[in-house]
Amino acid sequence: MISQVGKEEGKEVTGKCSMLRNEMQTNKPLKLLEGKRSDVIIWNDYLRKQTEEMKKEPRWFEAAWLYVECYMYRRIQDAFDLTSKLQDFDPFKNSKEMAFQSSLDAALYFGKHILTTIEQLQQKLHKDSPEVFEHFQLFLQVSLWGNKCDLSISAGQNVAQKESPVEQIHKLQDQILVNDTRKLLEILHQANHDNPNKVTLSLVLDNAGFELFTDLCLVEILQQLELVTFVNFYVKDMPWYVSDATEQDFLWILEVLGKSEHQSFQELSKIWIEKLQQKLWTIEKEKYWTLPFDYSVMEEMDPALYAKLSASQVIIFKGDLNYRKLTGDRQWDFETPFQTSLQGFLPAPICALRTLKADTVTGLSPGQGESIAKSFPDWMISGDFGLIQIATP
């Protein structure tokens, strides 16, 4: 229950968000943050440096879009940080939870499928058997297309998944523009050869809800296939881009599965909670994911996080925002090698799993983008095309 003080502060937050909307609509200069979180000084220093570089105050329609878009969500959090009772309140919580609840049929189907797959894998398939690749490819692609569930793109509208994810995969094969699935499997096999039973995967999450569920299923299969031993899940440390996963979202989905009337959900919740308890899975919160920087400057701006990622054998980055920060959100030529667009950021082998919802993409074949655009003019923003891209040191 929210106290009377909390209710009054909620009105203040609503007023601040209305002012924020007006600032955006009328192209006002960006303002300094006022809260007391540890990242406030970083955001405010960044704004001052942008003012120096632009030789004028950055405004909404004039500064780099990736920066002002992130700034908008950080300003929303700042409004909550200035209260006494609502600092930990997630304004997007209900939307995220309702989106998952409306996708329960698809999640249930996939949950039963993964449990059946786990039973099959008890036969200890040889690493070179065709079944290993088939399982690997299926769960990787379900995780990829789970990325379509983005509430920030749909303006908070329902993004429910109604169809069976497994059946959808076969329909979507031709819409994966770059498919480095075999390369990723080779990297994991080599990592296991070099570090038997010690392979660490870092998974930088994107959306909560159904996408997070598919991510957990992917990781489960990677461990069942003995391709990965430890997994570090990187979440946002504050509500972000409406649907981005926080620690609370992660724990909530385990709780919901555990309390479900469906046995398959209960079994998965039990398995996954035990993995957290056994430290086979860890939930990592780092403030860098909600700072104004792209990833090319991470080694300079947050060497500790860069070192943690460097200790991984593979890093999977999920989703559109991560891809934009990987590539600096620049207008690269489509044929620019993906590794080039990372601008030196490569702490470990990287796999980007992303459905296209913003107009930046690299690593395509010559003429591929232009050819798709003839039939699908909005191919870069529709979420109907995907990428499984690898870059290796």
From TrEMBL:
<keyword id="KW-0464">Manganese</keyword>
<comment type="function">
    <text>Metal-dependent phosphatase that shows phosphatase activity against several substrates, including fructose-1-phosphate and fructose-6-phosphate. Its preference for fructose-1-phosphate, a strong glycating agent that causes DNA damage rather than a canonical yeast metabolite, suggests a damage-control function in hexose phosphate metabolism. Has also been shown to have O-methyltransferase activity that methylates glutamate residues of target proteins to form gamma-glutamyl methyl ester residues. Possibly methylates PCNA, suggesting it is involved in the DNA damage response.</text>
</comment>
<comment type="similarity">
    <text>Belongs to the damage-control phosphatase family. Sugar phosphate phosphatase III subfamily.</text>
</comment>
<keyword id="KW-0479">Metal-binding</keyword>
<dbReference type="InterPro" id="IPR002791">
    <property type="entry name" value="ARMT1-like_metal-bd"/>
</dbReference>
<feature type="domain" description="Damage-control phosphatase ARMT1-like metal-binding">
    <location>
        <begin position="7"/>
        <end position="371"/>
    </location>
</feature>
<keyword id="KW-0378">Hydrolase</keyword>
<keyword id="KW-0489">Methyltransferase</keyword>
<dbReference type="InterPro" id="IPR036075">
    <property type="entry name" value="ARMT-1-like_metal-bd_sf"/>
</dbReference>
<dbReference type="Pfam" id="PF01937">
    <property type="entry name" value="ARMT1-like_dom"/>
</dbReference>
<keyword id="KW-0533">Nickel</keyword>
<dbReference type="InterPro" id="IPR039763">
    <property type="entry name" value="ARMT1"/>
</dbReference>
<protein>
    <recommendedName>
        <fullName>Sugar phosphate phosphatase</fullName>
        <ecNumber>2.1.1.-</ecNumber>
        <ecNumber>3.1.3.-</ecNumber>
    </recommendedName>
</protein>
<keyword id="KW-0808">Transferase</keyword>
